[in-house]
Amino acid sequence: MATRAETSFGSGADAKTAAPLAERFRPQSLGEVIGQQHLLGEDMPLRIAFESGQPHSCILWGPPGVGKTTLARLMANSFDAHFITISAVLGGVKDIREAVEQASIWQGQGRRTIMFVDEVHRFNKSQQDAFLPHVESGLFTFIGATTENPSFEVNSALLSRAVVYVLQPLGDDDLKQIIAKILAGQALPAIESIASEAVDKLVAYADGDARRLLNTLETLDVAARREKKGGRVEVTETWLIKVLGQQMRRYDKGGEQFYDTISALHKSVRGSDPDAALYWLVRMLDGGAEPKYMARRLIRMASEDIGLADPRALRLALDAAEVYERLGSPEGELALAQCVVYLAVAPKSNAVYKAFNEARAFVKKDATRPVPLHLRNAPTQLMKALDYGKNYRYAHDEEDGFAAGESYLPEGMAEPGFYRPVHRGLEIRIAEKLKDLKSKNDQKS
Fold first, then answer.
1. For residues 141 and 373, what is the distance between their CA atoms, to the nearest angstrom?
2. Which of 69, 75, 68, 78 is nearest to 36 (CA)?
3. CA–CA separation, 225 vs 208, rounded Å?
4. What is the Cα–Cα distance from 179 to 176, expressed in whole angstroms?
5. Is-contact 305 427, C-beta < 8 A?
6. Cα separations in angstroms, 428 against 127, 131, 423, 440, 441
7. Of 262, 44, 85, 252, the residue nearest 167 (C-alpha)
8. Under DSSP, is residue 361 helix (H, G, I), strand (E, B) or coil?
9. Integer Cα distance of 23 and 156 in angstroms
């Protein structure tokens, strides 16, 4: 909680009389924070910001349970600022207006204010715009928390006024450290100890989310109290599975990490093995993976590993995602299975993927070359007088719809040869077409 005051808008609830474990063990100082050392370690960006004593607007982007709210509160503490929190899920323009009025009062008293907006991506454009003039005037320091990519979900105007900090899921060692801290603090009175095998399962179930871990520990403590009625329980792997049952099994990674499994699926598709691809798809769905996430990955595979060898693959992947959106589980999962089999048996090409990466690398290191005059747009007389668009050859008016010998690259730039079709699927015909066009160009040169 902030040093001076904390005000909450859009929450629809007063202070909790019995705070959950996750709230009771929320870090009260920077030294108590576990994880995020890429931001909070010595000489790291957020550590420097804390030590500077000068707050700045920022966006905290990361998955649930990694410390976004905690860091915002610690900033208020560190900068001796009033802390206003708005829930974008439950709040609206009225809540923003009330928060601005409160910040104005505190500014008149010479006090700083930190405006924390949880789930900021849930606010629409006009709601996000409501913060801009006050961020500009310095009425408050804006801190937004989001689980979604701010490049897509946060207005560019607001994004340009804030530093984006990317928070990572907590690692296994971080989560084990939290368990040890909870046990050492005797916050679970009915639990005496947790066996190492049970710790591993809890860590796998938490999947980088500290809040999920703490809520699960609290659930175990309640179950232990009911079972022992005054005694204390040693949490073994067997007892853990008995208490959490199917819920624990579905999140059990079986010794494999989530991204290892998605990697196995991707490589099975790339390797043209439909049985293996189906196996890994079902493993992930059975393990609790979000089907919408799986659909996005299939779309990526269609672009990366099949590309123009079979352009229908991308369309089928998009259709499968749409079918799942309409039907949900379990019916919609069949469309994902159909897609993964098609991707596995389709001809493969990463030519576009490689060409894109080569082009991006080239542009990154190359100078900014001017657009040749004949390729420039000329909507005004002045531009035409400056020879914009002069001598441009309209391909549709040329023989076979191709302006042989025309150049579309910046002057002085050699043909880079980014795209090299493979000898599979439709790209066989694409290669033949490009070879024919090159021959026509050579004849004109």
1. 46
2. 68
3. 27
4. 5
5. no
6. 51, 54, 5, 19, 20
7. 44
8. helix
9. 33
The amino acid present at 428, given as its one-letter code, is: I
In our burial notation (b when 16+ CB lie closer than 10 A, e otherwise), range 7-38 reads: bbbbeeeeeeeeeebbeebbeeebeebbbbee
CA distance 127 to 158: 11
Please report, in tens digits, the pLDDT of each residue of the chain (445 residues total).
334 456 665 554 444 446 788 888 899 888 899 999 999 999 898 999 888 888 889 999 988 899 999 999 999 888 888 999 998 888 788 888 888 998 999 888 888 899 999 999 888 888 888 899 998 888 999 999 998 888 888 888 888 889 999 999 899 999 999 999 999 888 888 898 999 999 988 988 888 899 999 999 999 998 888 877 667 888 998 888 888 875 565 544 444 457 778 889 999 999 999 999 999 999 888 877 889 889 999 999 999 999 999 999 999 999 999 999 999 888 999 999 999 999 999 999 999 999 999 999 999 998 888 999 898 888 888 888 888 889 999 999 889 898 898 888 898 898 999 999 999 999 999 999 999 999 998 888 7
> What does residue 27 show for φ and ψ, rounded to 5 degrees?
-55, 140
Residue type, 106: W
**Closest alpha carbon to 188 in 24, 298, 28, 301:** 24
Contact 65, 20 (CB under 8 A): no
Q: Is 290 left (phi over 0), alpha (psi -120 to 50) or beta?
A: beta
In the block, tokens 């009225």 appear at 94
The residue whose two tokens read 């389709």 is 346
d(CA 235, CA 194): 5
* 170 close to 82: Cβ distance less than 8 angstroms: no
Residues composing the chain:
445
Tokens of 356: 């894109």
pTM here? 0.58
413 token code pair? 């730039």
